[in-house]
């Protein structure tokens, strides 16, 4: 019998075992297979992206200055299952541009050139703004053209991404989202005020200033009209990678925290709930990520997220998410006026999701226990169990203590 937290007991029975050698390393086949698969997939993705970029640089005029930005969960080490889905932004630098918001929340913009000739002039609309749909169509055509010669690579539809399905022999099928982005190297729009500023009390003002020097990206997005949506994926990646109030958080010389693991669990829970209820399809990983970023700004110390406190920290993060859902308000971390639960999310589905999460939380997460639902479910519960067990060792002798941390370290590294 173990407790997740909040005094609710839950007994779990599992069929999967994870084996460790005497030095605490994984010895079962799952580990070896997973790592090999991971590096194989990553290398296929690298080759494909390189091929596309070479084509853009050599054979096109408007995309010849393209850079790549690896975003999304794979590159943030936040993936919750097989390395089968990758996100890469191919960005085109733009200079001497006038970025004008439209609407009153600051998430969508139009982009106009100021003066002179530009390589993107051919995408100009009558009002002198760059047509997002025109540029995306051309980008998609170029991607299609150059992947034609790659065996097992297919182009699927998708917006704003061009999604490639890579079906190599002997590897898992990979979905690669190539997102077109404009890279803007000027100061952030005023709508971002009060957004990232919140990290002052978590990561410090120096880190905030460094991030704000980085510029930002715009990705094509249809929003009732042709538009560009602002993106800070590079900043998300940077602050999630260096997420400690102490520089050494989660480094070999520092203490281990559970921030990223809490996010993985939340994404996993959301995924299972979505699979159960198609009406929840509008909720996505970005809601989970944003909830974590806000949570990091309210519980700012590494000691608030101790690895051994995974259970309570996860519970607290769920309560945060429920709060956002009940209020129908989850501000975009970078643009406070942009409510991610606004347009497209009706109140009813927000309330329903909040209720379902509360139910799961109060009943010891029955959804994690359903057999054969998802390999990860079993693993998740195992990990929670192990960590709770490890907590029980906390009062033990020194050797047991180091075993405990070693064990948590390995589990958190692995998943
Ligand atoms: N601004 C903004 N960025 C988004 C939104 N959705 C996704 N992104 C960005 O695009 C990246 C990739 O999106 P996803 O593939 O949906 O999410 P992910 O973080 O990779 O998570 P999974 O793929 O579900 O594991 C995210 O990490 C975000 O940086 C959104 O609604 N608004
Ligand atoms: Mg992704
Ligand atoms: Zn950490």
From TrEMBL:
One Pfam family here: Mab-21_C
Mab-21-like HhH/H2TH-like domain span: 258-358
Transmembrane segments: none
GO cellular component, one term: site of double-strand break
Domain Mab-21-like nucleotidyltransferase stretches: 74-242
Listed GO MF terms: 2',3'-cyclic GMP-AMP synthase activity; chromatin binding; double-stranded DNA binding
GO annotation terms (biological process): activation of innate immune response; cellular response to exogenous dsRNA; DNA damage response; negative regulation of double-strand break repair via homologous recombination; paracrine signaling; positive regulation of defense response to virus by host; positive regulation of type I interferon production
Alphabetized SMART domains for the sequence: Mab-21
Family under the similarity heading: Belongs to the mab-21 family.
Name under which the protein is recorded: Cyclic GMP-AMP synthase
Organism this protein belongs to: Oncorhynchus tshawytscha
Gene: CGAS
């Amino acid at each position: 019998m173990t407790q997740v937290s909040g005094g609710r007991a839950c007994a779990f029975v599992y069929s999967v075992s994870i084996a460790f050698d005497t030095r605490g390393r994984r010895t079962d086949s799952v580990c070896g297979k997973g790592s090999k698969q991971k590096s194989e997939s990553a290398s296929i993705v690298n080759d494909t992206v390189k091929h596309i970029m070479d084509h853009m640089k050599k054979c096109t005029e408007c995309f010849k200055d393209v850079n790549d930005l690896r975003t999304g969960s794979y590159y943030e080490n936040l993936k919750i299952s097989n390395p089968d889905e990758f996100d890469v932004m191919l960005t085109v630098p733009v200079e001497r541009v006038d970025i004008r918001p439209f609407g009153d929340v600051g998430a969508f913009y139009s982009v106009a050139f100021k003066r002179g000739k530009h390589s993107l002039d051919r995408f100009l609309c009558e009002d002198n703004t760059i047509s997002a749909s025109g540029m995306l169509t051309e980008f998609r055509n170029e991607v299609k053209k150059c992947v034609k010669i790659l065996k097992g690579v297919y182009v699927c539809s998708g917006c704003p991404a061009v999604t490639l399905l890579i079906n190599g022999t002997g590897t898992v099928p990979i979905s690669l989202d190539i997102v077109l982005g404009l890279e803007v190297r000027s100061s952030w729009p005023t709508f971002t005020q009060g957004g990232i500023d919140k990290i002052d009390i978590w990561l410090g003002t120096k880190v905030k200033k460094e991030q704000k020097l980085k510029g930002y990206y715009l990705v094509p997005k249809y929003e009732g009209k042709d538009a560009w949506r602002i993106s800070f994926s590079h900043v998300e990646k940077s602050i999630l990678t260096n997420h400690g109030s102490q520089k050494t958080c989660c480094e070999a010389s520092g203490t281990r925290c559970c921030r990223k693991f809490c996010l993985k669990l939340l994404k996993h829970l959301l995924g299972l709930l979505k699979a159960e209820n198609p009406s929840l399809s509008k909720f996505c990983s970005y809601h989970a990520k944003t909830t974590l970023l806000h949570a990091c700004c309210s519980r700012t110390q590494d000691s608030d997220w101790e690895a051994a406190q995974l259970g309570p920290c996860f519970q607290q993060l769920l309560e945060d998410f429920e709060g956002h859902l009940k209020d129908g308000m989850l501000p975009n971390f970078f643009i406070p006026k942009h409510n991610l639960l606004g347009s497209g999310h009706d109140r009813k589905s927000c309330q329903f999701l909040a209720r379902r999460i509360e139910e799961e939380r109060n009943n010891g997460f029955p959804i994690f226990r359903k057999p054969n639902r998802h390999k990860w479910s079993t693993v998740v519960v195992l990990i929670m169990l192990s960590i709770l067990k490890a907590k029980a060792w906390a009062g033990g002798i020194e050797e047991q203590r180091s075993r405990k941390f070693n064990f948590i370290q390995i589990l958190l590294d692995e998943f």
